[in-house]
Amino acid sequence: MIRAAGKLRLARNILLGMAGLVVLGLVGISIAIRIGFNTGGDMMGAVQKTAISKDGTVIAYEQSGSGPTLILVSAALADRSGNRRLARHLSDRFTVVNYDRRGRGTSGDRSPYTTGKEIDDIEALVDASEGSAFLFGSSSGSVLALDAAARLGPKVRKLYMFEPPFIVDSSRPPMDTTLSSAIDRQISNGNRGEAVRMFFTRGMGIPPFGVTMMRFLMPGWSKMCAMAHTIPYDLAILNGTQAGMRLPDARWKSASLPIKVAVGSKSEPFFHSGAKGLVQILPSAEYQSLAGLNHGALLFAPAALGRDVQDFLLRH
Fold it and tell me: Is residue 148 located within the same domain as residue 283?
């Protein structure tokens, strides 16, 4: 009896210890998420402006700093607030144009959606500035920026791509081709939260438990739900690039400008494979692995990422 009671106490203490570790882990993750997604509101000193795209859509942006124009193109489920930390580190050398892609933030939107309309939006921002600009894009936004560079020619001086999510080999399963239509159905039924959950689980491969944690701990969850209808926009941009095959040669054949494709050294292998695959088909592109960074560098390491962006764009 005494020996059994001792074993019970030991088991109870182990369970309590494990529970404590879980609680501490959740608290740590919660703090990290809140720090990462706290962009500090509007950017100090930024001038609020708008540009009118070809279809009449109003594109809202904030402009800060001085120097050559640099337009920041955000990723899926992100508006300009996600780029503000990076913008702060770049505004001492560039006139930074940080905008809300159509359908997000305070920018307008018009149906039906086409990728060409988003390129028109970028062109409107370039024309509203000085007629030419550098581009920076992250994740799916980097692919949109590449599409824009291929179409706009000399209006884009250089392009910095951070972690385009291409799937070109077996390092990651191909994207589910039915995901976009499934998300559209959820949005049509008013289930925006489910659409976001679907994108993270089926699209990004995050386990359901991890998405549940994000839902309850991430301050930006409601903002992402408000932008859920734009998920199919990004999936359309990525169409044909996530099938586990070689990237389409013809799509960007006119993109002859200097391009850097950077991937964090701590990011998943498929990001590196995709970046290298892109560099192989572009005439003036370079690949680099950035030590210590991962896909969250815009939020958690903007200074390091900003230094590399600046070095490349201002390199002669």
Answer: yes
